[in-house]
Amino acid sequence: MQFVLQRILGGLAATFLLVLMLLTLVDVVGRYGFNAPVNGSFEITELLLAAIIFSALPLVSAKDQHITVDLIDAFVPSFFAWVRDVAIALVTAIVLAGISYKVWNKALESVHYGDQTAMLYLPTAPVYFYISIALGLSSVIALLLTWQYARAGALLSSRKA
């Protein structure tokens, strides 16, 4: 599953990044070389950045590569570290699911009201739907990590007995 995620979401993120780089190149050359910037480049950049960030979130979650601080890990007993890891993964799954739900509602609201960007009149709903799906996928991944941590701790405690 991780391979499929990496191929699809990684490919999307790389494609969005390539489009963003090309847009920036054309905008800068047009602006300074020909005094003709790309109209709406700021709006397109905003949408592409959101797509890049939320394409990468499930990949970061699947590899368990979120930013962590390990100042006291050397002093924490392994049982408490296990409880902490399970609790953090579970809370992360719940929070991501909640945010996904709220963003999905925002996307539906955006469809209902016909929200568009200010300059290019691009619809914002597809971006909201994409963000919500990526958050939902990240939530499922965090839930799977919770299960993985719980099983790993149970296996360790059963081997000690």
- Rg, please? 21 Å
Number of structurally distinct domains: 1
Sheet bearing the most strands, described? none
Tell me the series of helices and strands, N- to C-terminal.
Answer: HHHH
Strand content: under 5%
Multimeric status of the protein: single chain
Which residues sit in consecutive blocks of at least 5 with pLDDT less than 50? none
Separation of the first and last Cα atoms: 34 Å
Number of strands: 0
Counting DSSP H or I runs of 4 or more residues, the number of helices is 4
Which structural class fits the helix and strand makeup?
Answer: mainly alpha
Name the overall outline: elongated
Return the average pLDDT rounded to an integer: 90
Helix content range of the residues, please?
over 70%
Explain this structure to me?
The protein starts with a helix and ends with a helix. The chain has one domain. The chain has 161 residues and is mostly helical. 78% of the residues lie in helices and 0% in strands. 19% of the residues are buried. It has 4 helices and no strands. It is elongated.
How would you describe this structure in keywords?
mainly alpha, 161 residues, 4 helices
Topology:
Elements: H1 2-33, H2 41-62, H3 78-113, H4 125-160
Write a short abstract of this structure.
With 161 residues, the protein is mainly α. It has helices at 2-33, 41-62, 78-113, 125-160. Helix 1 (2-33) runs antiparallel to helix 2, helix 2 packs parallel to helix 4 and helix 3 (78-113) runs antiparallel to helix 4 (125-160).
